[in-house]
Amino acid sequence: MAEGRIDPGWWRGRRVWLTGHTGFKGSWLGLWLCEMGAKVSAVGLEPEGVPHLFHQLDLSRRLDHHIGDIRDADAMRELAEQAQPEVVLHLAAQPLVRRSYRDPLGTWATNVQGSLHVLEALRSLQHPCAVVMVTTDKVYANREWDYGYRENDRLGGHDPYSASKAGAEIAITSWRHSFCGPAAHQTPHLAIATARAGNVIGGGDWAEDRIVPDAMRALAAGQAIPVRNPQATRPWQHVLEPLGGYLLLAERLLEAHGTSKANAYTDAFNFGPSLESNRSVRELIEQALLHWPGQWADLSDATSPHEAGRLHLQVDKAYHQLHWLPRWAFDTTVERTVAWYRQLVEQHDAAQTTCLNDLAAYVNASPTN
């Protein structure tokens, strides 16, 4: 089966509404869309902290940039009306597990109610629109299995972040079933799918309480890397992997809209790495130290908030229905991620150039399996 490849020409001039563009994944996706010539209208919160990838990429000059909160239904409706999108890529979220323990209500309001505000804002559209609603691999009821979760496995979530994202999946599915169709209370114009991705790493992630940013900050300062849960296993993938999946899914959604093939895409899709990339946090750190020598410290604490121990995804559905495949193996993913941060330390203005180099290398790479 031939690999599904994104068509840059398909995106040239395409009206895209991107939420969460000031976040880590959103900044990378905004750059990719701009490089393909899409007309991007974007909304997100003010970037937190310094440095921040959104500023490093100077994205406010390249797209129609708006600061806004998806919990504000009126603002979302107004922005959607202005954008008149053909494609919506919804990434805005409260994405941090440990922060969700500190702010559970804000996490639920953003991840569930905010997602519904985005969908409600699109109801007035009078033309076909593909909508990719991004959630997470943590939507599954985690049973600490040794094998990967499939899209039809039970949803759940121990911590507020995971549970809110599972709630978002249920709410989005309900909204699609209730309001997409030919009836008087429905719209025939929207094609909606959800996308669940594994743990993403890559240059430009500066978030709190994430292992790679914590590691890179420690190495740059000549300190030991703090590691909370070295035995936890995650499906590590470069940030460009799921973003490519979202773009490919959006293409297929819009192309199939109104045809007999539409139902194949208006559903949930996993985007995870190949099996060999399901590694422990310890393995991730030891691989990173091959490219930036240093030390790490085991800070395991039984009193810390609960986080999943084992977690990985089956991506057969994305392969068979979208022809999507991951392109970078674990070693390549870690090497390019560490190189991004090292170059920034050694060449302080290298962020945009390094991102573009990574993007070009990824687009031209062959599948890993």
Plain-language structure description:
- It is a single chain.
- The chain has 13 helices and 13 strands.
- With 369 residues, the protein is an alpha/beta fold.
- Strands 3-2-1-4-5-6-11 form a seven-stranded parallel sheet, sandwiched between helices. A two-stranded parallel sheet has the order 7-10. Strands 8-13 form a two-stranded parallel sheet.
- α4 (73-83) packs parallel to α6 (104-121) and α6 (104-121) runs parallel beside α7.
- The protein is globular and about 65 Å long.
- The model has no long low-confidence stretch (mean pLDDT 93).
Structure, briefly:
The protein is of the alpha/beta class and 369 residues long. The chain has helices at 8-11, 24-35, 53-56, 73-83, 97-102, 104-121, 160-179, 211-220, 240-256, 281-289, 316-322, 330-346, 351-363; strands spanning 15-19, 39-44, 64-67, 87-90, 129-134, 190-197, 200-201, 225-227, 233-235, 237-238, 268-271, 278-280, 296-298. It has a domain at 11-201 and 239-272 and 310-329: Rossmann fold (3-Layer(aba) Sandwich).
